[in-house]
Amino acid sequence: MPQKIEQVCFDQSIQPIDPAAVHQVKLASDRMMPVAAYGTFHSDWAQNYMEEATAEAIRLGWRHIDTARAYENEEVVGEAIRRSIKAGHIAAADDLFITGKLWNGHMNPRDVAPACEATLKALGVDQIDLYLNHWPWPNVHTPGCAGEHRNPDAVPYIHEAFMETWGEIVKLKKAGKVVDIGTSNHTEATMKLLLRDVVEEERPVCNQMEMHPLMQQTELRRYFESEGVVCNGYMSLGSPNRPGRDTFKEHRADMLDPTVQAIAAELGASPAKVALAWAAQRENKSGGFVAMATRSDWIRDNLSVATEDLLSPEQLQRLCGIDANNRLIWGQVFLWPEADGDWRILWDDSQVFETREGYAKFKASWEAHNKVQQETTFKG
Fold this sequence. Notes:
about 15% strand; alpha/beta; 11 helices
């Protein structure tokens, strides 16, 4: 019987990595961002370990911390930062590059500034290095909800409304509350609209998006980067302990893929290191990745791939050839009624609206059609 691997184990004897050895990418603002970001998405089971795990990540050399109000643990991350300063692992919070995110429920223009202030207070910092709009629409879900959850007030992307939110995010930048601004989960259509309607200093410098060996999004990434928008990938390890609402029978596990396993065997490395090395080296090392672990050895291993080229060009090419468009975050809990239950509409740009009026016309047409369909379709 295989030995069970302990998922939580903090070992102070494991030596740290020099943060200066970690590869960085230049943002459009000319600021440098460490490509390896320690993720604090809790996946429920890890919530009780997040403070110690984040502090351990900082001890081991991670200097980019990825947070979000939606993770419901900004105060815990803030305590880990204070703990790291007290232990002497960093001199001040300024030694870290912190990414924060504006949650969907705070996208009303009047809520943006208070939400950012709450994040600053929780983290115990005066400024956030990179502030992302978490999702393109203000659709919220109940914390810990099941996959069947739906918000009847959910709406698609309405550019007119988004720009009102973005204007408030820009104000945060101008006020010095955040240094750089960006997006998360934007599509090509929504990004084109945003870039069309902003001046140079209001452009996003980064988009965070799902990227892993079985979901590479190469064309979308190349579009963003052609516009000067750096891409940072989440779900970099396939998040095997993600919530049940994001787990479906169609999903494949990146670290069990035969090519990933074969290259891991060739290198004498773990499949996780192979997946993250692919993330760090692909597209001429132009982007980054987010990864979380709660074991000291894994935390260090995950960072080490950003300090060296583990993969040969041939191995990297083989990994770039296994893309299966295997999206793990369907986002079905954010669906609006007119999507008619099809999660792919969240991502395929088929329901993107410039104005509230345009959406209202579409909604009225859809409701009339849907009423006829319900009245006339055979229910046998």
